[in-house]
Amino acid sequence: MSDIVGGPDPSAITSVTAESSKTTGFDANRISEVKAWLTSQFDAVGKDVPDFEYTPRSIAELHKIATLSLAKTQASAIVANDYRQKAAEYRSQAARIREILESVGLAQESLPSNVVSSAHVLAKVANLLDVRDTELSSGRSFSTENSSRREES
């Protein structure tokens, strides 16, 4: 599957000079990068890379797309890892808080149902408003930010 991409053999093309390959992106390194990227993309969905003609324009455009795709893939992997780490930290913090509440007799099971449902509603509202800190000062700063956002709109 090393030579799935059809068209003329890149090493056999002699009409492209070294100078024009710098400006058009039609060089062996870019071709190999494009082939590797295409293969990985099509392999991911279980298909073969379709045949196409190697032209300076096609290689240049595919190289741009491949470069952007790889950058976005790396960025999304970083974000996903960050979310996984934060989720683990939140679970750990929740377990710690649960233990503290249970030790002082405030386990969720021992609270009245209206208190539990109010706490759930409060948590949902905080999530919707993207409130990260429950300190009074952060609530004031949130309302100030929210007011300034509305004024800008």
| Number of strand elements | 0
Q: What does the main sheet amount to?
A: none
Taken as a percent bin, the fraction of beta residues is under 5%
Q: What is the overall shape?
A: elongated
Question: Helix share of residues?
Answer: 55-70%
Q: Give the integer mean of the pLDDT values.
A: 78
Distance between the termini: 55 Å
Helix-strand pattern: HHHHH
Low-confidence stretches: 1-21
Main structural class: mainly alpha
Cα radius of gyration in angstroms? 28 Å
Quickly count the helices: 5
3D structure, described in words:
Residues 12-22 have a biased composition (Polar residues). Its main location: cytoplasm. It is found in: Cytoplasm, Cytoskeleton, Spindle. With 153 residues, this protein is mainly alpha-helical. Helix content is 69%, strand content 0%. The longest helix has 48 residues, at 56-103. It has helices at 18-24, 28-44, 56-103, 113-129, 136-152. It contains 5 helices and no strands. It is elongated.
Short key terms for the protein model shown above:
153 residues; mainly alpha; 5 helices; disordered N terminus
Brief sketch in words of this structure:
The protein is an all-alpha fold. It has helices at about 20-25, 30-45, 55-105, 115-130, 135-150.
Describe the secondary-structure layout.
Blueprint: H1 18-24, H2 28-44, H3 56-103, H4 113-129, H5 136-152
